[in-house]
From TrEMBL:
It holds the Pfam family PEP-utilizers. GO terms for molecular function: pyruvate, phosphate dikinase activity. It comes from Geochorda subterranea. Residues 518-869 form the PEP-utilising enzyme C-terminal domain. The gene is ppdK. The keyword Magnesium applies. PANTHER family: PHOSPHOENOLPYRUVATE DIKINASE-RELATED, PYRUVATE, PHOSPHATE DIKINASE 1, CHLOROPLASTIC. It catalyses: pyruvate + phosphate + ATP = phosphoenolpyruvate + AMP + diphosphate + H(+). PROSITE patterns: PEP_ENZYMES_2, PEP_ENZYMES_PHOS_SITE. Residues 422-503 form the PEP-utilising enzyme mobile domain. InterPro entries: ATP_grasp_subdomain_1, PEP-util_enz_mobile_dom, PEP_util_AS, PEP_util_C, PEP_util_CS, Phosphohistidine_dom_sf, PPDK_AMP/ATP-bd, Pyruvate_phosphate_dikinase. This is Pyruvate, phosphate dikinase.
Amino acid sequence: TKWVYFFGAGQTEGRADMKNLLGGKGANLAEMANLGIEVPPGFTITTEACNEFYRRGKRWPEGLEEQVKENLRKLEQAMGRRFGDPANPLLVSVRSGARVSMPGMMDTVLNLGLNDVTVQGLARQSNNERFAYDSYRRFIQMYGDVVLGVPRHLFEERLDAKKKARGVTEDPQLSAQDLRELVEEFKGIVRQQKGQAFPEDPWEQLRGAIDAVFNSWNNPRAIKYREIHHIPGDWGTAVNVQAMVFGNMGEDSGTGVAFTRNPSTGVKEFYGEILINAQGEDVVAGIRTPLPVAVLKEKMPHVYAQLEEINKRLEAAYRDMLDIEFTVQQGKLYMLQCRVGKRTAMAAVRIAVEMAQEGLIDRQTAVLRVAPEQIDQLLHPTIDPSARVEAVAKGLPASPGAAVGQLAFFADDAERMADEGKKVVLIRAETSPEDIGGMYKAQGILTSRGGMTSHAAVVARGMGKPCVVGCGALDIDEKRKIVRVNGRELREGDWITIDGSTGNVYVGQVPLVQPELSGYFATLLEWADEFRALGVRANADTPTDARTARQFGAQGIGLCRTEHMFFGEGRIIPMREMILSDTKEERERALAKLLPLQRGDFYEIFKEMLGHPVVIRLLDPPLHEFLPKEPGAVAEVAREMGVTPEVIESRSRALAEANPMLGLRGCRLGIVYPEIYEMQTRAIFEAACRVAKEGHEIEPEVMIPLVGTPGELAFLKERCQKVAEQVMAEQGVRLPYRIGTMIEVPRAALVADEIAREAQFFSFGTNDLTQMTLGFSRDDVGKYVPTYVEMGLLKADPFQTLDVEGVGQLVKMGVERGKQANPDLVVGICGEHGGDPASVWFFHEAGLDYVSCSPYRVPVARLAAAQANL
Ligand code: ADP
Ligand code: MG
Ligand code: MG
């Protein structure tokens, strides 16, 4: 088996499309070399070797050692240096790299091959003793930490002590002599911690580092990261062994991390950070504050020009925005990494649209580039601009969107508080991979240290969380869980607001506003609309919802729930009167009060949705939801109805049910108390007639809920038709109209053909359908569904993502049988699933005509529907 692939020096064996085998880093290093970009040569040990390593009980696969040695010789030849050579030593880095990047999960060792002898060779060769010993002490530190497991802080403390003793603050201020001493001290730490000397044999060093990378695939942080991001454990990681280049050789050297376009905003500009006279890890670790890459324009103009040229070449090759890592050694530029860059939703949208406009990609590709789950971010709130608030501090805007939450100082606190149902903002000096769980559960993340490429920034952007980093004004006392900021003192649980778009931090709960659809986002969704077959409507109960829905591009209302109207001001009383009526007369008296209210609502909604279908569902929920509970409310209803509170209480008791969700609700109400549906139908048609008289075309659609038998629908349809005809006769208006039903009782899906003969449209009520098919109470799922998901008994919460194998069969069956029996039948879905991308995909495949979801999910559904059709 071929376990090792060479790259660079004109002998590259890999390609960009070999990520599964070579890992992302290895495949892209090979690709850059293929593109003729300067990459220090090296070789990649495959992910298969890593898997084989685990299969063999953590022993190297057969033949790997020979292949590594062979490639090392090839590398020596390419570099004109020898591994372990006292005069002319080859130094390498050992870098992990899985198929997808896992920030900070795997550890890299630099300057490998140094020992007491080769360090002198390096010093003589570079004519720079300071540099040689700086590299050596870094090597011992990194190798000690990553490979030997010596606590990192032991080295850091010694380094700090040395700086203090010399009266300096920055690493580059230490002299060669200081560093030489540090090397000895570091070796002492290793000896003391491990009971054996630091390995001087380069081959032993290399073997150990490769083992460490293999092993890091299964360290707890990596496992946790894979869990959150659904990355299979059997992908394995590749190992890259690469000739070192040095950014720590003086003021004409440095190391940088950048993006070909701005990953926060998407603006087409070279964006990133550089540290002069430093080595790789320094940037990411946030030890020193990096400078914007733009400084290279002045400091090293030829390097900057080269970088711009490389960016263009990389974007043309990858047809995407890239994240690059590079090092400048004495004025010469080397590329060390490139990969498709992580970006915020805002940036993703802008980059996709602009790249299509530039001709780098076509519109289909642009539409496919943006994950529907991700654009949810753009539909997140921002700080209300009219809120008169003063920021208490300002940091770097690392990931946009505003978040309000209670302070948590540690990741596990954040997790615990979030599990208690609290909204949390996680505050840390800086985050590390151990914090991933808490970051995931938090509304937003705030750090006092680090830059735009710090761990917190990168991870938050990936998760789509609002994040502010490097907010230096924060003085965090972790032990006491207190943060002081500009004279204020905040503790765990105190409210804070962060704005990841500006970097502002506010004390307290700042009001937020909902976003609008405009600019690049609107353009992308217009393109999406060209590619989709599935219609997208909204669930909207009020004129305001209807307006929002239109703004987000809904093509009508798929579900208008009439019951929500009854909770409004001045409405609950007549509603209660209606429910608690004893006689038909009493009930009709109450309904007469409700009629004008409903008529007014429907009129407003129709006006908002002119030219688009509006499906109005007749009363659905169990009546007990409307019963007065507190004594005050009981007394009020009693007064209104002219009876004693005792009478009201006893009637309430009589209405109580053991299992209300399976009780007197939906069409059963309409059958037991026909006056209710008659009043609602009258309100719908009176409103529609008024709209028609104003000169608009209108076709109201009346939807009967919870039907399980064709007989139920036939009975209610006839009564509705009677009222409709009556109203139209009274008003002297003729309207087209439709009567249809929800499919939400499993029986309805089973006998969909019979029901379709009575219905002009179906709308799958997937919330109830899921509840009744799985037998999971919608209102109590929190008690066990998360456990099921964790244990893998369920793939996802079936109330969020449709259970395709089970409930999906009923949907498919319902569509097929329904359309067969009635070819004109229009079929939609109006459960929560209508805004869930994976479910939208399924509804497209199942041949539905449209999905209907909450107004804020409409853009998500539009994009998902387009992608399902591409
Ligand atoms: P990560 O996957 O965490 O980004 P990398 O393997 O990219 O880790 O290594 C981190 C940094 O180490 C790189 O960005 C680069 O600056 C530095 N580095 C890695 N290999 C080399 C090398 N051969 N020469 C110089 N610097 C290197
Ligand atoms: Mg890297
Ligand atoms: Mg329902």
